[in-house]
Give the backbone structure.
Amino acid sequence: MGVQSLHDNPPRKSAATATKGTGPFADLVGIVLRPLHRLIWANPERRARKLLQFAEVEAAGGRDLVRAAELTADPVLRDRYLRHARDEARHADMFQAQGRKLHGKLHEGDANGALGEWIAPGERGIDGLDVARESDATLLAFLHLSESAAARDFARYAHVIDDDAATRTLFQRILRDEDQHKKYTRDELFRIAPRRSRRVLWWARLRRLWKAYLRFATAFAGVIAGVVLTLQYFLLLPPFAWLAKRAARRERTGWISVDERARR
Amino acid sequence: MKILGISGHYHDSAAALVIDGMPVAAVQEERLSRHKNDAAFPLRAVEWCLDHAGLVPDDLDAVIFYERPTLKFDRVLTGLLQGYPRSWRSYPKAMKNMLGEKLWVRGLIASELGISARKVRCIEHHQSHAAAAFLTAPTDDAAIITADGVGEWATLTVGTGHKRPDGSTEINMLRELRFPHSLGLFYSAVTAYLGFAVNEGEYKVMGLASYGSPTRIDEMRRLLRATADGAFTLDLEYFDFLGKVETGFSQNFVDLFGPPRRSWQPIDLHSEEGRRFADIAASAQRVLEEVIVGIATDLRRETGLADLCLGGGVALNGVANARILNEAGFGRLFVPSAPGDAGCALGAALYADRILFGHPHRTVPDHPFWGPQPDDTALLRLALEDGIPVAMVSEGELIDDVADALASEKIVGWVDGALEFGPRALGHRSILAAPHDAAMRDRLNRDIKYREEFRPFAPVVAAEHADLFFELPPGGDRLARFMSGVFPVRPEWRERLAGITHVDGTARVQVVDQAMAPRLHALLEAYGRRSGIPVLLNTSFNLAGEPIVNTVAEAYSTFRRCGIDLLVAGQTCVTKPRVTRVASLETAA
């Protein structure tokens, strides 16, 4: 499981519930990002792709939770994780069904593009977390934060889907589960680590920040490397490409014997 | 001498340990990491192999990587240069990929294991495949064919192998085909076109093919043309292995065959579109069979050898394997339990032992069970903690109880002994069910496997009765040992074996002999006494998107999440309470 995973979305009533407790900063971020979200979700093709993408994320999240259930020694947590995993699988099915439905209404080749591929922090769940290396407490803390972030993000999305009642309703249904997940992860964290639960939560927040930084740094490094390699491709490679193409023209098709291979 | 073999970085990483010429452990990384087709460096697999043998990395005499990264880099770079300027998008990605880690494998292995880089050696990809196929097979002299997507440069090789009376071993490659002319890449491009995941969904193409007719075979033959010397060449106008790495097919391919299927589109075999996809699958399958049978026939004529060892991912194509056995003239066809890249870990270690270090040949045990053993007591603990009915019974009683359950149409999760090495569940991590009714197949698809209707389930039969139910050609039982061949179900039994008989009347049967899997064999016999048919439906113990289970805890969580009625591990038997089963079905609904 290492993986991107669980969570996502809450909706409208969510909008109120989900942002509750996240503070004025989160509200401000939501307002600032609203035009971007509106842009992303306004396009039906992109919306369909996002929903299908969410389906994959939910399914991966479910597998993460199954792994957690397999590893924990606590029977109560095992049961909770398995139930949670079942919810995630159901969410995946729901997202997939709605994504397919939307997609089926569209013509091939409708706009999509990079915006549709973008994954918000809340959609990543416990991304990159190796469940096998986490204690029950740290995993619960991560799950709790993931559910919260996902709920917040999806509440924002539900806000900007004006003309698609079915998708908005889908988000709202899923949000009800997300609220349950937030609650049980917090309750269980306080049950199994009553003295250090707050510390574990803060530590998990810091780790999420660190992961966000690593994601950004990796992406940034990737862009820089991509630019440098692309320049190299166009500036340095043409003569070698000419030689390679000339050699390719001399290649004959069919078998190459071991002797011939040795000569190459 | 202690030799560790490693495969990885492409798909399905694995590690295998050979001590004094004998395999002692082999496992795929995915079974431990729980990421299906895990391609990461197989550190968990390495750790498990060493732990299993009680070794630390310093104890190893050699570590063998299954391919030569520099040759692979050569091929990647040359391909990109030849594709200039069309390859401009692929170039940065490929370079980051290769230069980031893959090119420096020796250093990576030395660093990960904390050993000297001098202990790390690399052999060629297809040498690893050939060794995995030949050195594990119970034959002394055999022709060898390896075929997959691509290794370094080679995509298909032919040769011979000999185990001499003096103990020396030879693997002689005669000739090869080179990238981009590849049977594996051809089939993968069709797999991608049909909307399935490459390196994962190829067997779905094979299953789908049975529902179609090869009406597009002439077009397929244009794509994959025979050459005068008995080989083949791909028409690169229809493929794009550089610009569209993920799919491999070009716009010309789409123009020829029509729009590709989107991965999330269901295949409705009653629709025109669904039939089009099935026909394309059937045509691709037929062309692949023609080519590989032709190559095998030529090799048989050339070498005069009676046995053929087949390795590489293409060897997972059971329909093609059966045709080779039937038509190429070989008496026996050996396909290892892990013919794909995972098996290269074992092949590389054996190759090093026999060929690089010149140790005398030793007969490798003829079974696929090289992985971790389950902790049978864990099931008792888990079930007691969760308040699920559990029983520990004697061996005889357990076999009888399970056979009774199967006869009353219960679905059984079966965990027994060391994990299989390779993609097939061969009786140690299996879901078993009665094979008689198509409704059982539908139930498995609906409540457990959640997969497409066109994918068949495989049967397992006791060796003594295989010929009664299946039309096995001479050598067929050997090919079916690791479920590597697809053979006809005898017409008179098809109705009573409807759960495992594919639409074309065939089945990918596993023939079990008592020595290889005694408990499964006993269960088959016990079931036969009840039903009159010692055949069971045998499917891998996993859910969609997950690797086959390894531990009892994984089996138990799978049992909890799907419609399995009974879970057996060792002498422990857990029954799903009816209320739980109903609840789970309601949830699924």
